[in-house]
C-alpha cells in the first residue's frame, strides 16, 4: 500500500513539473506580477451568519420527520458565526494578517427518534461556544490581468478555546457534562475576490486542506473524570464551511 501511495505521489509530481528546458506558456488566465492590491495597503473585514431551526408538534412526543430517518423531532437549534480580520500588504498582492472568530451552537431536543426504535432522545440540551484567533498569509493572482477580479490562497494557523454543556432538565435542576475545549489547526483556504468599488471587495472562500488537534476536558459531578482528544486532517473542500466576507482596503 505504501509503495502504491509513493508511486502515485511521484507520478503527480512528474505531471505538475515542467520538463527541463521547456518554454513557459501564458494561457492568459492570470499574472501574479500584475498588481491587484499594492504594497502598504491595510485591509479590514468582517463576516457573520445565523441559522435558526425549529421543529414542533402537538406535544413533546410528536413532531417533524427528516427524510424518514429522524422521526418525531421536536425542538430547536441555533447556529451563530462571526469573524473579523485585519491585514497589511508587505508586498504587492501579498499580506500578513490576523483573524478573530466566534461560534455559538445551541440545541434543545425535546424528543427525537430514529428508524431504529431503540435509539431515542429526549430532554437533551446542548450549548457550545468557541473563540478562535489566527495568523494568516495570503497571496493574490489577478485573473486576466484584471484589477477587479482575482484568485487567492490563504495559509492560516489557528488556535481556539471554548466550552460546552450537555445537560438534561431534572427535578434537581440541570444535570450533565461540562467541557473545556482547546484546538490548534493549520489550513489552506482558497477563494475569489471581486472589487465592487475602488476600496470595497467581496470575497468567497472555503476550506481546502485542514489539519490539527482538539482537546476536550470533560467535567461531571464537579470532578475532572474524563478527556476526549481528536486529531483531524481534511483534504477535501468543505461546502458547509463556505465563507462570504466584505473587505475594506485603504
Helix and strand topology:
Layout: H1 2-16, E1 42-55, E2 64-66, E3 70-91, E4 94-114, E5 120-142, E6 149-170, E7 173-195, E8 200-205, E9 209-220, E10 223-234, E11 243-249
Antiparallel strand pairs: 1-3, 1-11, 2-3, 3-4, 4-5, 5-6, 6-7, 7-8, 7-9, 8-11, 9-10
What's this, in brief?
This protein has 250 residues and is mainly beta. The protein has one helix spanning 2-16; strands at residues 42-55, 64-66, 70-91, 94-114, 120-142, 149-170, 173-195, 200-205, 209-220, 223-234, 243-249. An eight-stranded antiparallel barrel has the order 1-3-4-5-6-7-8-11.
Question: Can you offer a commentary on this structure?
Answer:
It is elongated, with a radius of gyration of 24 Å. The model is unreliable at 1-18 (pLDDT under 50). It has one helix at 2-16, and strands at residues 42-55, 64-66, 70-91, 94-114, 120-142, 149-170, 173-195, 200-205, 209-220, 223-234, 243-249. The protein has 250 residues and is mainly beta. It has a single domain (34-249), classed as Porin.
